[in-house]
Write a structure and sequence with these properties.
By secondary structure, this protein is an alpha/beta fold. It has 7 helices and 10 strands. Strands 6-7-8-3-9-10 form a 6-stranded mixed sheet. A 4-stranded antiparallel sheet has the order 2-1-4-5, covered by helices on one side. The relative contact order is 0.20.
Length: 227
């Protein structure tokens, strides 16, 4: 499988002089298309910084970043915004749903931002996605009228709406109970298998990390384990 993520000699430094903090050190990483990778590490290890650089939400101090074959560390803000909207999906620990909108309206939001009005074919796809994540019965509920698990499923559906090649998830089940956590991860694996979507997931939960195809541990800004 080709690599959809390539990082070459990535360094990330915050601050300057005596207040300088070196977060990532000459980090090299390749992620293959269709893979399911978990990234673990203690707080402050650099794993969230790494995910933000992959997601083009932050830029490295030095090094090269390639997403789906395109070098992103030299792109301008508008180019990055287009790339994120077309290629990347994000799932966070907090679902960040808009409370005044229904589940379906939240799912359609990325498409409307990119393309405006939703044509019938894409609306039908949104319904299919809601079916895939098990939300067909509550798709017209306001975000505030759903359980925590349903809200996170809505966030997953929203991440899928623009058919991204890559989904980046930062502690996507951090606020959920253990049973719901298992259900969400089973859903992510199902999406990975059905749609060939590449997943990169940060988690503190080693039990969940072990369900991935590949485990990468970040320690002091370096890759300490890759199995």
């Amino acid at each position: 499988m080709p690599n959809v993520i390539e990082l070459k000699k990535i360094n990330k430094i915050y601050g300057s002089g005596p207040y300088q903090t070196h977060v990532l050190h000459d980090l090299d990483l390749n992620i293959a298309q269709g893979s399911f990778t978990s990234i673990i590490g203690q707080s402050g290890s650099g794993k969230s910084t790494l995910l933000n650089i992959v997601g083009t939400l932050d830029q490295p101090s030095t090094g090269e970043v390639y997403i789906n074959g395109r070098r992103t560390d030299q792109m301008k803000k508008k180019e990055l915004a287009v790339l994120r909207n077309e290629t990347l999906g994000f799932i966070f620990q907090f679902h960040y749903l808009l409370p005044e909108f229904t589940a379906m309206e939240n799912v359609l939001m990325p498409y409307r931002i990119r393309s405006g009005k939703v044509p019938p074919a894409d609306l039908a796809r949104a319904h299919d996605i809601m079916d895939l994540v098990g939300l067909s019965k509550v798709k017209d509920n306001l975000a505030t009228k759903m359980s925590g698990g349903q809200q996170q499923r809505t966030a997953i559906a929203r991440a899928l709406m623009n058919q991204p090649k890559i989904i980046l998830a930062d502690e996507p089940t951090g606020n959920l109970d253990s049973d719901t956590t298992e259900t969400i991860y089973e859903l992510l694996r199902e999406i990975n298998a059905k749609l060939d979507t590449t997943f990169v997931i940060i988690t503190h939960d080693r039990r969940i990390a072990e369900k991935a195809d590949r485990i990468i541990e970040i320690r002091d800004g370096r890759i300490a384990l890759d199995v």
